[in-house]
């Protein structure tokens, strides 16, 4: 019997975690008002993550060979700058997400969300002129659709923008 590769082990761990979270979703209090249970959205997300984890497990079992890091025949680089280069994309994601959280009270969910998605797409996908236009369309479309769904479809009050108020305070608007 062959050993499981790292990807299969991670996929199994994710499936167990999804099972634990799904079981924990039954402990969410059911209110006596409203039409949508508070556990509905967590369960939808957990099921989606479970399906993706199953796909991950299937792919890891059908392609068991491990991909070596770095160039072929080159030893892996050591040191802080090598580590920083290897982890630059997750670091950018966290930095931009914290910037999104910091700008949320000022710009509101709609503008902050569009800026976050636009910047993240450009940092990860490149800053070419063609990419700028495409990333702007994707950011405005996705965040605008999500904002509309939550605001008008689900009647969720999202963080509003204080930007017009700040412009008035700074004397840039009447």
How are the secondary structure elements laid out?
Layout: H1 6-24, H2 40-62, H3 80-86, H4 88-125, H5 129-153, H6 163-169
Helix pairs in contact: 1-2, 4-5
Question: Would you give an account of this structure?
Answer:
The chain folds into two domains: 1-65; 80-174, no CATH class. The chain has six helices and no strands. It has helices at residues 6-24, 40-62, 80-86, 88-125, 129-153, 163-169. Helix 1 runs antiparallel to helix 2 and helix 4 (88-125) crosses helix 5. It is flat and about 70 Å long. The termini are far apart.
What characterizes the major β-sheet? none
Class derived from helix and strand content: mainly alpha
Overall 3D shape: flat
Helix content: 55-70%
Task: Please tally the helical runs, counting DSSP H or I stretches of 4 or more residues.
Answer: 6
Radius of gyration (Å): 22 Å
Low-confidence stretches: none
- The average pLDDT is 83
What is the number of domains?
A: 2
> What separation lies between the terminal Cα atoms?
75 Å
> What is the strand content?
under 5%
Please provide the ordered H/E string of secondary-structure elements.
Answer: HHHHHH
Number of strands: 0
């Amino acid at each position: 019997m062959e050993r499981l590769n790292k990807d299969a082990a991670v996929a199994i761990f994710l499936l167990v975690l999804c099972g634990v979270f799904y079981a924990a979703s039954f402990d969410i209090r059911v209110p006596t008002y409203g039409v949508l249970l508070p556990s509905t959205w967590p369960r939808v997300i957990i099921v989606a993550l479970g399906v993706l984890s199953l796909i991950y497990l299937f792919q890891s079992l059908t392609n068991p060979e491990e991909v070596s890091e770095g160039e072929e025949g080159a030893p892996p680089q050591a040191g802080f700058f090598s580590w920083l280069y290897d982890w630059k994309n997750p670091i950018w994601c966290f930095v931009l997400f914290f910037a999104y959280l910091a700008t949320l009270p000022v710009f509101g969910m709609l503008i902050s969300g569009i800026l976050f998605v636009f910047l993240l797409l450009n940092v990860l996908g490149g800053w070419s002129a063609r990419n700028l236009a495409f990333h702007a369309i994707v950011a405005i479309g996705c965040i605008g659709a999500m904002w509309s769904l939550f605001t008008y479809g689900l009647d969720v009050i999202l963080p509003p923008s204080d930007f017009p108020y700040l412009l008035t305070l700074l004397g840039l608007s009447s």
